[in-house]
Specification:
Elements: E1 6-9, H1 13-24, E2 29-32, H2 36-44, E3 52-54, H3 58-63, E4 70-73, H4 79-88, E5 97-100, H5 106-118, E6 122-129, H6 131-137, E7 140-145, H7 150-160, E8 163-164, E9 168-169, E10 175-176, H8 179-209, H9 213-223, H10 231-241, H11 263-274, H12 279-292, H13 294-303, H14 315-348, H15 354-360, H16 371-381, H17 392-414, H18 420-432, H19 439-450
Parallel strand pairs: 1-2, 1-4, 2-3, 4-5, 5-6, 7-10
Antiparallel strand pairs: 6-7, 8-9
Length: 483
């Protein structure tokens, strides 16, 4: 007879911290790691005296679990997950539950869910956000997969996750198949966007105004007390104020070459697949790619000309403009992210609760902020809201902020300071509110060189026309399809 409520495979920092968190909420946890000494060290160390039991093999781990067995896989995404699933399936019985808590790509999760269900088992792919601290103290969790599994994992997940006002858990069922990991992927894409926007604000004030790290830390501290209050603004404040043993700002000694693990890229690819203009997150991904070619940029800085970055302006006024640009661009980023969620829900037949997703992101995760409460309210007002920018609160916020936003983008272009996320956000906003884009000319071009046809303003949508532009093309037109 099993004694543990759940098993965890993989004792890297996230696995260990989740085990500690689950045990702290009154559950018994069985743990296993491929290298046995890690299990011994954990159980005899920080888990000593707690309801955490070790296992030397997967067979022993499974034997220690209560039915239906619940196994959470905290291993590297990709092939290791598939290999582990194949090793575990013969050890389990109908109704047992496999849980992938890593950063898996959502198509992999959908495929694994179908595969595991075909073996008579249940599968959950859950996004877990909040990093090491979140795993230990309360993450945001986004579970999806086999619906029948939810009633069994819900008591544990909602016990260990972060809570917001009124004790509401930042975890709820997302949907079938790969829905949970899709929502986590979009979360990470928005995280890329938020971080890039903050970095652009930092560079505009550092290079454009000549402000030092200490001054900038004070600015972000002030911003964290108002509408930009968020985890990422908070840690930016702390980073800018942090000093080494010599009293120097450590941030100034860090090489400007960013890393990435791929979830932002996945989000951009998913947007292209769905035909959603996720421009800001795309620019955030490309900005990291550009930062990575450090040596090329250093060489180019000596070879390519441009204006001096210093902006001759009233410092306090421009700092406020940057704040407005950051807030307005943040609205655009989330509007694009939610547009992608809406499109994917239609494609994969997921019943995504958009306000509920905002609530799941309200605490525990990296993008947690006061801002997400406003998104929850927007979808409470209108669950079928097509674009977040059309909500009265956010429409008014952009209207009030766009003066500063436009001045910042103009100053960045005039003084040669790269601000791709700010600029792409503004271009998206202006494009979205434009009743007549120049795509009429584009369609004429496509019809001219490829007989792609076009629609007319004086005919119903869906009726297509072709013009013999050269007099030599004839009446034959290409078939139409939507990418």
């Amino acid at each position: 007879m099993g004694i543990a409520d759940i098993g965890i495979v993989g004792l890297a920092v996230m696995g260990e911290n989740l085990a500690m968190n689950i045990e702290n909420k009154g559950f018994t946890v069985a743990v296993y790691n491929r290298t046995a000494e890690r299990v011994t060290r954990f159980v005899g160390g920080r888990a000593k005296g707690k309801r955490i039991v070790g296992a030397e093999s997967l067979e022993e781990l499974v034997a220690k679990l209560k039915r239906p067995r619940k196994l959470m896989l905290m291993v590297k995404a990709g092939k290791p997950v598939d290999e582990l699933i194949d090793r575990l399936i013969p050890l389990l019985e109908a109704g047992d539950i496999l849980i992938d808590g890593g950063n898996s790509h959502f198509p992999d999760t959908a495929r694994r869910c179908a595969y595991v269900e075909g073996k008579g088992l249940l599968y959950v792919g859950t996004g877990v956000s909040g990093g090491e601290e979140g795993a230990l103290k309360g993450p945001s969790m986004m579970p999806g997969g086999s619906p029948a599994a939810w009633e069994h994992v819900k008591p544990i997940f909602q016990a260990i996750c972060a809570k917001v006002e009124g004790g509401v858990p930042c975890c709820d069922w997302v949907g079938e198949g790969g829905a949970g990991h899709f929502v986590k992927m979009v979360h990470n894409g928005i995280e890329y966007g938020d971080m890039q926007l903050i970095c652009e604000a930092y560079q505009l004030m550092r290079d454009g105004l000549g402000m030092g790290a200490g001054e900038l830390g004070d600015v972000f501290a002030e911003w964290n007390g108002a509408e930009l209050d968020s985890y990422l603004i908070e840690i930016t404040r702390d980073i800018l104020k942090y000093r080494d043993g010599k009293g120097e700002a450590i941030v100034d000694s860090i090489l400007d070459a960013a890393g990435q693990k791929g979830t932002g890229k996945w989000t951009a690819i998913a947007a292209l697949d769905e035909g959603i203009p996720l421009t800001l997150i795309g620019e955030a991904v490309f900005a990291r790619c550009l930062s990575a070619v450090k040596e090329e940029r250093v060489a180019a800085s000596a070879a390519l000309s441009g204006p001096a970055p210093r902006i001759p302006t009233d410092r306090a006024a421009f700092v406020n403009d940057v704040r407005e640009a950051l807030y307005a661009s943040k609205i655009v980023s989330y509007a694009q992210g939610y547009a992608l969620l809406r499109a994917a829900a239609k494609t994969y037949n997921w019943n995504l609760i958009f306000g509920g997703i905002a609530l799941m992101w309200r605490g525990g995760c990296i993008i947690r902020s006061v801002f997400l409460g406003k998104i929850k309210e927007a979808f409470d007002r209108d669950p079928s809201l097509v674009n977040l920018m059309l909500d009265p609160f956010f429409a008014d916020a952009i209207a009030r902020a766009q003066g500063g936003w436009r001045r910042v983008c103009a100053a960045a272009a005039t003084h040669g300071i790269p601000a791709p996320a700010f600029a792409s956000a503004l271009a998206y906003y202006d494009g979205y509110r434009c009743a007549n884009l120049p795509a009429n000319l584009l369609q004429a071009q496509r019809d001219y060189f490829g007989a792609r046809t076009y629609e007319r303003v004086d005919a119903p949508r869906g009726e297509f026309f072709h013009t013999n532009w050269t007099g030599e093309g004839g009446d034959t037109a290409a078939s139409n399809y939507v990418v």
